[in-house]
Amino acid sequence: MTTTALKARKEFGKTLASDIAHRLRNEIVTCQLKPNESLKFDALRLSFGASFTTLREALTLLVSEGLVVAEEQRGYKVAPVTLEDLHDLTHARILIEVDLMRRSIEKGDDDWEIRVISSLHRLARIEERAPEDYASNTEWKAAHRQFHEALVSASGSPTLLAVRNSLFDRAERYRNLSAMFRPHPRDKAGEHRALMQAAIGRNADQACALIASHIQTTSNNVAKYASGVISAG
Amino acid sequence: MTTTALKARKEFGKTLASDIAHRLRNEIVTCQLKPNESLKFDALRLSFGASFTTLREALTLLVSEGLVVAEEQRGYKVAPVTLEDLHDLTHARILIEVDLMRRSIEKGDDDWEIRVISSLHRLARIEERAPEDYASNTEWKAAHRQFHEALVSASGSPTLLAVRNSLFDRAERYRNLSAMFRPHPRDKAGEHRALMQAAIGRNADQACALIASHIQTTSNNVAKYASGVISAG
DNA sequence: ATGAGACATATTTTCGAAAATACTTAAAAT
DNA sequence: ATTTTAAGTATTTTCGAAAATATGTCTCAT
Question: Which residues are B39's β-sheet partners?
Fold first, then answer.
């Protein structure tokens, strides 16, 4: 089907609504849509080429993920970015990620080990190719996400995994914000390798300590470098 | 505004969609809408008196809460009920509730203590009035929910609290299922009082152990009494 | 000058029909 | 007899207009 340029086209999900949600999520996370920016239907309709109804469904979904807030009868806006929210988010992420990590290490099979190793390998390759400023690289971000996802992928806990993924998205927005103001990128390569080795070596305690500290450190850096653009709680 | 009987009317939320979501959630949790039952738009439109679009928004919301599953292009159905899901849910609930409980005890102020004590008092009164079979009592369920909500209400963690509430709803469906097949109701009154005393006494370790065991025991009972109606994982 | 009330405007929320997609039944060919 | 194809039916998904609600502006009385 050869649709016109104006008409919306599905790329990712199967339904248009889920596709719009995906694109909106990306624009919010990368801060193309700024925190607190109000999401007017007319404007969105223009840039996404979908109808009121379809946009509404996508927005409803993003509200439940915490990336959009709805003031009933007064429309939607991009969720604010605050120090309070960052702390809340960081705490929740550490609690859940540590639990998933421990159980993934307990239950992980050969396939899990392969997923962890290969995703780290890909990440390292991208870092080699673009040693400078890889944190703003879209390819690196996808690989980074996949590595962390691989680590917890054997936990066998769909509920917590779904929550984890949602929180990861919310955190990515803060990471991007931090990257915009950080003088030079932090070197996470060492941390990632240590994480992989502890996981594959089935050293659960160490892996959990590492992931907790990894998340906490990232959060601290965000607070440090992006505090200027984060509105007060 | 005096609308006709056929027309949908707002009762709870401000928008019709959130109201429909609320009513649908209730029907699913109480098993008036049975697990795996497919949710056809025409039928729903008839019983709720809302349009396709509004129902769709409500369903999208419930999908993100795990009470409804969407098979894209093939419609929505009530989320299945399985032993696997129950275990997954129980694990997640214990992890999160214990964390919230500990921090609530740390941070709780006078108002928090009052909320805990008064909500337990109300719960006890309802149990006195209707000693038999109170678990199927709507009033008791609301009070029960409020007591548990009060316990963790001082944690100061909006993210985890939102997840907790969603998981509580999912668990309520299993509790109701269990109550339908249980020979005689379990006496939770003692557990609830002990929980209150540990919390108010700022005995965090004991309160956490109690809440974990409370959730786990309930889950075990569900598995015991409702296993007949729970489809295999 | 200031505040209240009413009109006008902007925006969201809801609706039911039209388009798109999947499922079912039946007929035909191998 | 079994599989394939095709047409028809059922259901979901998308659309843009109409209704409902909030916001902003202007007038008028105090």
Answer: B76
Closest CA to A38 of A81, A71, A4: A71
Most B-contacting residue of A155, A160, A164 (CB-CB within 10 A), to test interface: A160
Q: How far is CA A70 from the centre of its chain?
A: 21
User: SS3 for A118-140, per residue?
Assistant: HHHHHHHHHHHHCCCCHHHCHHH
CATH number of A16-78: 1.10.10.10
**Residue B100 · residue B107 · CB < 8 Å:** no
Name which of B106, B223, B182, B199 is nearest B148 in CA terms. Answer: B199
Token reading at A68: 């959009």
> What residues are paired with A82 via a beta bridge?
A231
Where in chain B are the domains?
16-78, 83-226
Structure confidence at residue B131 (pLDDT)? 65
CA dihedral B150, B154, B157, B161 (to 10 degrees): 0
Is the CB of A73 inside 8 Å of chain B's CB atoms? Answer: yes
Q: Tell me whether A64 touches chain B (CB under 8 Å).
A: yes
Apex B73 CA angle, B67 and B78, nearest 5: 20
The pair of structure tokens assigned to A81 is 């970015």
Six-digit token string for B63: 């999908």
Whole-Å CA distances, A155 to A105, A150, A210, B86: 8, 10, 17, 16
Strands B38-39 vs B68-70: parallel, antiparallel or unpaired: unpaired
Pairs of residues, one from chain A and one from chain B, whose beta carbons lie less than 8 Å apart: 68
CATH number assigned to the domain covering B83-226? 1.20.120.530
Rounded to an integer, what distance in angstroms lies between the CA atom of residue B58 and that of residue B76?
Answer: 11
Sheet strand arrangement including A68-70:
A38-39, A76-78, A68-70
DSSP state letter for A231: B
- Residue A30: Cβ-neighbour burial (10 angstroms; 0-12, 13-18, 19+): middle
What are the residue ranges of helices labelled H in A70-137?
83-107, 110-129
Residue B41, CA atoms < 13 Å, CB-side half-sphere: 13
Block residue for tokens 């969609």: B17
Above 80 in pLDDT, residue A16?
Answer: yes
pLDDT tens-digit series, residues B44-90: 998 898 999 999 999 999 999 999 999 878 889 999 999 999 999 99
The Cβ of residue A216 has, within 10 Å, a number of other Cβ atoms equal to 14
Lowest mean pLDDT: which of A95-109, B9-23, B114-128, B139-153? B9-23
Q: Does B14 contact A at CB distance below 8 Å?
A: yes
